[in-house]
Amino acid sequence: MTKKPFRFNQEHIIGLVCLSVSAIILSITPTFPKGKANIGLTGPAFFPDLLAFVFILCGVYQFWYGTVNAASHAPITLDTFRNLFKKKETRTAYLIILFMVGFILLFDALGFLLTTFLFLILFLLRLGASRWQTFFYAFFFTAIIYFLFGLLFTISLPSGILAYVGL
Amino acid sequence: MDAILSVLRVEILIPWILAMVLGIFVGAMPGLTATMAVALIVPLTFHTPPIVGLAMILGVSFTAIFAGDIPATFLRVPGTPASGAAVLDGYEMNKQGKGPLAIALDLTCSTLGGTIGVLILITISPILASFALQFTHFEYFWLALLGLSMSAVITKGSTMKGLISMTGGLILSTIGLDISTGYPRFSFGSTYLMSGINFIPVMIGLFGISEVLRSISITSHDQLGDAAIVSNVKADFRSVGSIMGRNKRLILQSSVIGTLIGALPGAGADIAAWVAYGMAKKTSKTPEKFGTGSEEGVIAPTTANNAALGGTWIPALVFGIPGDSITAIVLGAMMMYGLKPGPLVFQGSRDLVNQIFTVAVISQFFLLILGYLGIRAFTWFFKFPRNVVLAGITIFSIIGAYALRSSVFDVGLVLVFGILGFLMERVTIPLPPFILGLILGPMIEENLRIGLVKTSGNFWPFFNRPISALFAILLVLIFLYEPVKLLIQKKRK
Fold this sequence. Notes:
The complex is a heterodimer of chains A (about 170) and B (about 500). Chain A has about 170 residues and is mostly helical. Chain A is built from six helices and no strands. Chain A has two domains: about 10-80; about 85-165, no CATH class. Chain B has about 500 residues and is mostly helical. In chain B, strand 1 and strand 2 form a beta hairpin.
């Protein structure tokens, strides 16, 4: 009988994530204080520790499951990572994530109006909207949100650099 | 009568009806779920009185669930997962030129199912609430765990992945100040983390942004600007009365099934629709017609999915345990208003509970009118390019999360959990148990630890009280059900 080669797959990754999260929890909780009347069961570490042990069991099971059922899962190789950037649609999803990171970083500095308008323009252009559609909907959504949240619900939206021009 | 008059005021009616219109729009868009419709509405309710916000949430959920049946009938594309079962016979009827009749039947049954579900809710909830008053920390611990575990087991895919999702949500709920000692757990000195992870940005990210990322990553760029235009979409109500008269028993059966399944924590409208469809086929005199354009095949799932919405409110209101992801959001919204869902809400906030019931019943009448207009407007809806809809959802999600606490940190949470939700779906880990774990985590921990403090660390009282013992046994049975079933199937083979 020939021994089947080990095929690393997504089930192994899930298992490893569970084990890593558990390890992080169990390395932090010993610093937590003890519970009432020194009963560990009632202290702040008890519940996270309990969950970490459940996660360890889940992780071990997933690792075992991934190994036993390796044939039914696509193996993860270096090509898997290369393929992550091959499709245009996937690259667009990564770009949208980057646009959102930019939005978060610039929101306070540039202010709500500018950041939202710029974000929508980049978003719509990347998703293939025509120029007039992009500008029309970017303006439309920015105005609607400003009206709903800023004016109607009086939520304080940052003015950013537009504060210098009195907006 | 007072409750009816108190909700029929302009300042309530306008946002309520507008929310229901939004529900039609989101529900009819394939890929966008009723949960997402509710998630989009929640940020708008932060600054409204409780009854206005709750009316908007209730209304949007009813219309979104129905609207999902419109593209299911005319395009064979379910607008929401709850419309999956409605595709089978609705689309077949449409192919035979009976689409207008199918959608009219669908709308009437949705309204009727929703009304029966709400009436069951109104009847059962106060009785259950007085029973729930006898519960102590031990029973609440098991009940919350039971609800959570059921969500992990019932959701599609492997039970282990449901358990992983549930535990992940529970772990996330431990971040922040400890409920009894005030000790900051896993906050790493951050004041944002010290106040805990708010479930609303997490939910917006998991259900909203992850869906946007998924849509973008699977839709070809050439199709993103496209719109699915359908012509000649209308409803034909002429023979609906006689068909419904012939199927009174089926309507009642599907409504009861829908409500009961909705009341099970974790099982929402989609499961209710499938079970009602299966049961209708089993009890039908003409089961061979199912899947070929059977009227019964349209009546059963469309009645059950709206009836399930009333059912999901039973555990939410009575025990403070969400029946599905929509009521999970509702619970969060109620807490935001300073209301604590549970048996005491029937005493402390009796007027508000009556108003919620009234809104739920009146929403059914609005559903009939708005649903009809929604069918007419369906062609117009689908002229909106997909990329514009995705842009709108993304920016509303982001600003909605910001509006919660005027915090960019919450927008960051939306992004992080959007990516996490996208990855979880890629590896088939269900999302609902995660969000339920985050919401129910504090309740489970609090009851477990207070129970243990009372007993000085002794676990026995968690098992030796009759109701606690019953819940514990049920919990074991829930987890044993699938492995035992598999074992029996293997042995038979």
